[in-house]
Design a protein that fits this description.
The protein is an alpha+beta fold. Among the domains are: about 20-110, Immunoglobulins (Immunoglobulin-like, Sandwich), CATH 2.60.40.10; about 130-230, Alpha Horseshoe (Serine Threonine Protein Phosphatase 5, Tetratricopeptide repeat), CATH 1.25.40. About 55% of the residues lie in helices and about 15% in strands. Helix 12 (about 300-310) packs antiparallel against helix 13 (about 330-340) and helix 13 (about 330-340) runs antiparallel to helix 14.
């Protein structure tokens, strides 16, 4: 009797314990790569929705994955490649009756995305889409339409700006480029055009109005550089405007950047730097900069001419008034002519070489009243 009671009691405890045993199932599937081949090593992230839990498994060389011992529940299944979520199936309800199967066909997905982008989704493709995918497609169509409209407006504004700039219609150019910048502030060419338009308009103004336009030009060059910081020409153009704003240290720093970013073009950049230093009255600094410019390969011919001029400023005169040039002066002008015999300063270089070999021309005042100043050669 006691034995029978004990057995009944144990059975009762067993029945009470059964509901607490976890029911598990299996989730499996295949991943097809964009090229149509099995995708090995794809990470499948299985996220439970009713409670916080995440399970992970990778595909084998056949593109197959299988996760056993998965608790019953509702899951979002995500395919991850190179740490990026590339596809996802939501709301997968597992059961104990059958394996739950979730496949990822990335080739079909790419084809569908291309069809959506081109607006050529077929009826067959549409039939294979889930309600979530159809909703996503509708959103993509809407976004694409807005993007196309935006791009059309952007191109129209930019084209109008460049046309106005070419025709020196600076007010119209500024208005069009500003419109383009509002449509897409990530277009470097827009900020470049706007900078050029402000520089052009500054040349038509004086005083504070010109200074204001130059400052705006500098600001827009800076914006263009933010989008493309490794473009040497942008730093060069920015420097030229900074110099016009009388910000010589900043201009020099930008030209140094340009030379560093584009070594083959460094000769021209250092030439520009030297010209800025001459304009600022920094003749000694300009002399060193031009000297640096002529040592860079390929040589920049104009730098030799300007270097010669800075050396002429250091010349002395003997007791007879004859010019005594410092070493390297004649060689600088001659090198300029060797490199660019028909250059813009060719005649000046020849005249300078002639002058360096002649006596100094001086002016004197004729003591006779009413007669004008004239030149004589000693």
């Amino acid at each position: 009797m006691k034995t029978r009671t004990m057995v009944a009691a144990m059975a009762g405890l067993l029945l009470m314990a059964l509901p607490s045993l976890a029911q598990v199932t299996t989730l499996e599937g295949h991943v097809t790569a964009p090229d149509g081949k099995p995708m090995q090593g794809a990470l499948i992230r299985i996220e439970r929705k009713d409670v916080t839990a995440t399970y992970k498994v990778k595909t084998d060389k056949k593109g197959h994955y299988l996760y056993s011992g998965l608790p019953l529940g509702r899951y979002d299944v995500v395919c991850v490649i190179d740490d990026k979520d590339v596809d996802q199936v939501n709301g997968v309800q597992t059961t104990t009756q059958n394996y739950s199967v979730v496949d990822f066909n990335l080739k079909a997905k790419v084809n569908l995305q291309n069809a959506v982008a081109a607006g050529t989704v077929t009826k067959e493709q549409e039939r294979t889409m889930t309600p979530e995918e159809k909703k996503h497609i509708e959103e993509m169509y809407k976004k694409n339409a807005e993007t196309m409209k935006k791009h059309a407006a952007l191109n129209e504004a930019y084209t109008a700006g460049t046309t106005a700039l070419d025709n020196k219609q600076y007010d119209a150019a500024i208005e069009s480029f500003n419109k383009a910048a509002e449509l897409d502030p990530k277009q470097g060419a827009v900020w470049t055009g706007l900078a050029q338009a402000y520089t052009g308009r500054a040349k038509t103004k004086t005083g504070a109005d010109a200074d204001s336009d130059l400052q705006k030009s500098a600001e827009n060059w800076a914006k263009a550089i933010e989008l493309n910081p490794t473009e040497a020409s942008l730093h060069n153009n920015y420097a030229l405007v900074l110099a016009q704003c009388k910000k010589f240290p900043d201009a020099q720093a930008e030209l140094e950047k340009a030379a560093t970013l584009n070594p083959p073009g460094a000769g021209q950049y250092y030439y520009n730097l030297g010209a800025l230093e001459v304009n600022a009255g920094q003749n000694d600094a300009a002399n060193e900069t031009f000297k640096k410019a002529i040592t860079i390969e390929p040589p920049y011919p104009e730098a030799f001419y300007q270097y010669g001029l800075t050396l002429v400023a250091k010349a002395s005169y003997d007791k007879d008034g004859k010019i005594v040039p410092v070493p390297g002066t004649v060689e600088a002008f001659q090198k300029y002519l060797d490199l660019n015999p028909t250059g813009g300063h060719a005649q000046e270089a020849k005249d300078m070489l002639t002058t360096l070999g002649s006596t100094l021309q001086v002016q004197y005042k004729n003591p006779d009243a009413g007669k004008k100043t004239k030149k004589t050669t000693k």
